[in-house]
Amino acid sequence: NEDPNFASQQQVYKDIGEEMLLHSFEGYNVCIFAYGQTGGGKSYTMMGKQEKDQQGIIPRLCEDLFARISENKCTDLSFSVEVSYMEIYCERVRDLLNPKSKGNLRVREHPIMGPYVEDLSKLAVTSFDDIADLMDCGNKARTVAATNMNETSSRSHAVFTIVFTQKRHDEMTSLDTEKVSKISLVDLAGSERADSSGAKGVRLKEGANINKSLTTLGKVISALAEVQNKKKKSEFIPYRDSVLTWLLKENLGGNSRTAMIAALSPADINYEETLSTLRYADRAKQIKCNAVINEDPNARLIRELKEEVARLRELLFAQGLSAVALGDLKADDSCAGSRSELPVLPFHSTSAEMDQAPSSPSINGQMEAYSDLEEQVICTEEAMERLQETEKIIAELNETWEEKL
After folding, report:
1. Dihedral, CA atoms, 20, 297, 178, 187, nearest 10 degrees?
2. Is the pTM of this model over 0.85?
3. How far apart are alpha carbons 122 and 118 in whole angstroms?
4. Does residue 88 come out as left (phi exceeding 0), alpha (psi in the -120 to 50 range) or beta?
5. What is the pLDDT of residue 234?
6. Catalytic site residue 39?
7. Catalytic residue list contains 187
8. Residue numbers of the chain with a pLDDT score lower than 50
9. For this structure, is 43 an active site residue?
10. Cβ atoms of residues 350 and 316 within 8 Å
């Protein structure tokens, strides 16, 4: 702890976890995965230990999530949290939260939702204590074994997923809108060399499968980096060559904000592996994901239209229109159907200004003043028309199925 460069578990979470949690509240999918050789500290960084100040990113993020939810004072906003925990062992998926599930779960691909695990249990939680119990249960079921390089070596990749939903009830439109964020926290098994780890028999087979999936992950990252550098869209990305890359497809090159933690060993005998991990991380940095906020497209459209209405109202206020006129416009617009006429009231001030314009100055001056005034009237008329049109679209979008019938 005396070393000024020492990074505590809390510091690591503040640097990476906090930012990712904020993105999830904004409605983005997020992913954090730890990569490195066996014994590099991946499981310690992601999961940590049960002791004080030794918890990793996953428990800290879950605790912070519920702390922020409890701070919410808005009555229109409600939250729901669901978790799932699985391991990929020898290219087979196991549910860590369902002890009865001994079989291997199928990985399938949905045309809209993308790759998913069939029959994976997704459990609703209401507090951090619920998540901590499930996490503990899952960690006990995870495949761990001792090798020459690591006493508690992870023999499988673990993926802890949180589906975080925010529902907001809009008083003005009586609509419920929701944002759904998927938080994927991945603890990868470490790459290892058979001669260093002393793996034999089953351990050797496990190590071969681990290295195979990590090699595929490396190929995917390289291919995605190539696409960014060469701007080639035709590059083949081998997602399906491994279950791990198939399941992380969205997180690696799609709709997600993703962070990679490179776990390095300080020992000089691990020089080659350390260099390989750094190369891996450098390639991963070149990838650009196209993350979008996951909300109902109708809700997003309504939100954008409301912003447009607010902007147009401000524009009209700036041009001297009274609040009464805008109120009349809204009342007219909320009436059923036909497009309301533009209110006459706002333009009295315009004609008054025209009357007050000096009559004696030169003709050129009069013409300039008149053309400026005409331009302002046209701009105002356009804005009023746009405002009516936008409010009408909002009303149509807010119409319920029963009202349409």
Report:
1. -30
2. no
3. 11
4. beta
5. 62
6. yes
7. yes
8. 148-152, 195, 197, 323-324, 330-374
9. yes
10. no
